[in-house]
Amino acid sequence: MLAIPDTLHEVLTAPVAIFGGGVSGTGVVALLAAIERNGVIYDEKTQPFSAKAARNHRLVVFSPGFSPEHPWLKLAAQAGCECLPEIEFAQRFWRGRVVAITGTNGKTTVTEFLTHALRSIGREAYATGNVGHAFSALVAELEGGKPTALAVCEVSSFQAEALRGFRANATIWTNFAEDHLERHPSLEGYFTAKWNLVAHTTSGAVFAGSSVTRHAARFGRPLASLVSVETENQPADETLKDTAFASYPQRENFLLVAAWWRAAELPAPKLFEAAKTFKLARHRLSRVTEIGGVVYWNDSKATNFHAVEAALARFDKPVILIAGGRGKGGDLAGFVHRIAARVKHVLLLGETAAEFAFHCAAFRLAFTRCVTLDEAVHRAAEIAAAGDNVLLSPGFASFDMFSGYADRGDQFERLVHDLSRAASF
Predict the structure, then answer these.
(1) Mean pLDDT, the chain, whole residue set
(2) DSSP E strand stretches across 55-96
(3) Of 320, 383, 332, whose CA–CA distance to 359 is shortest?
(4) Of 93, 33, 24, whose CA–CA distance to 61 is shortest?
(5) Sign of CA pseudo-dihedral 142, 145, 149, 152
(6) Taking Cα atoms as reference points, which of 342, 348, 283, 286 lies closest to residue 315?
(7) First and final C-alpha spacing in the chain
């Protein structure tokens, strides 16, 4: 059985209040079971938290969906409860080291690639955190892990902003651009949330891409806190030909992992070998198929403006773009202005379609509003001519119409394959 840290002995004498019953919450349940303790899941839809309930607990562990200002956390604090974000609770039991990965885009790819590369040289490494496998669940599965184990932990801004006692041995911060302004009060507020991870990382061990360094200077953060890595507009590397990292935006991710790899004094040739065997996860600017000379691309993971712009930069002529979804704040007018020259026609979906259409009209970008993804795919096929590319790169969250970005991408691929079969008859 896992040993309980001295810092938690007292608060674990009562059942733990778990805020959120998703991936993080179920991970906490697993970890509590491993130490033979109990928890109660509180969720706004099924079991709300109250001042009365707070008196039954001494510790609250909360998921990233709960901002530090959430009323439940205030109720818990008023009742004298200690409140910990899930990844910080998990680390209290973790015996190994932690490399944290954050950024507006690319953090999942960096998490998965670094884990893959480390395993390829025989190191014990595990991808965890915001990548979809809660740190608490990993700790429970490995019974705390070995001192030599490395948790490669993806950390979102939602997780980073609440950290107090968390400690990363190193952090890789891929890039920074406008995102999540539905949660953070401003662009600087979003940056500040991520910067909190810098404050919880070993000094001199934060590897930051060009855009991160630029924004740190803009917001008056100490640049000495960062190991600046030139990630933008770097020359091609023939060694990476035919790998996922041959071109941007993935080239940026490789450069950052390489910087950490060198600092860790690991053999450089082995990282290039790992790049040759690494496969990107689905829904990241992947080619679906070609129909009548028109190529269809699935980039459903692109849930912010920066990701869409990076995808569009891959094409040498304007594309037919399928975009829209649930808004996350940000300057939509500025986004449309920046992409207008790279888009032949945009098919608009979801809750943002009306506002998106207004800005498309203002910047004379041809558009069609569509009620369903099926309609958008068929309309794209009607508009496209041989040599065109049809790109699903939404720029927004998926939850207005789908269960997640993977569901959105899966449905897109099925619709495209249906088109292909129909065209073959």
Answers:
(1) 96
(2) 59-62, 82-85
(3) 332
(4) 24
(5) positive
(6) 342
(7) 61
Cβ distance 337 to 358 under 8 Å? no
Residue 277, pLDDT score: 97
Alpha carbon distance 51, 222 (integer Å): 41
* Both structure tokens of 154: 């993806």
Integer Cα distance of 242 and 340 in angstroms: 30
Buried b / exposed e along 238-254 (16+ C-beta atoms within 10 A) = eebeebbbbebbbbbbb
- Taking each helix axis as running N to C, give the angle between helix 405-424 and helix 373-383, from 0 to 180 degrees, rounded to the nearest 10: 50
Residue 227's DSSP bridge partners are: 207
Q: How far apart are CA 195 and CA 197, in angstroms?
A: 5
Band (pLDDT 50/70/90 cuts) for residue 45 is confident
Residue 425 has pLDDT above 80, yes or no: no
Instruction: Please list the residues that pair with 244 across neighbouring strands.
Output: none
Give the C-alpha separation, 171 to 207, whole Å: 6
For the CA atoms of 110, 114, 120, 125, the dihedral, rounded to the nearest 10 degrees, stands at: -130
Residue pair 176/215 in contact (Cβ under 8 Å)? The answer is: yes
Burial class of residue 205 (count of CB atoms within 10 Å of its CB; 0-12, 13-18, 19+): buried
CA distances from 370 to 23, 294, 312, 344 (A): 32, 20, 21, 16
Which tokens hold the place of 16? 């733990």
Q: Which pLDDT does position 219 carry in this prediction?
A: 98
C-alpha–C-alpha distance, residues 106 and 284, integer Å? 10
* Angle at which helices 268-277 and 107-120 cross, to 10°: 110
Tokens 């910087």 belong to residue: 259
Question: Per-residue confidence at 283, pLDDT binned at 50, 70, 90?
Answer: very high
Phi-psi region of 310 (alpha: psi -120 to 50; beta: other; left: phi over 0): alpha
DSSP string, 385-402: -TT-EEEE---SBSTTTS
Tens of pLDDT, residues 3-31? 999 999 999 999 999 999 999 999 999 99
Rounded to 10 deg, the angle between the 305-312 and 332-339 helix axes is: 0
- Report, as an integer, the average pLDDT of 133-139: 98
CA distances from 186 to 89, 328, 383 (A): 28, 12, 38
Is the Cβ–Cβ distance between 325 and 351 less than 8 Å?
yes
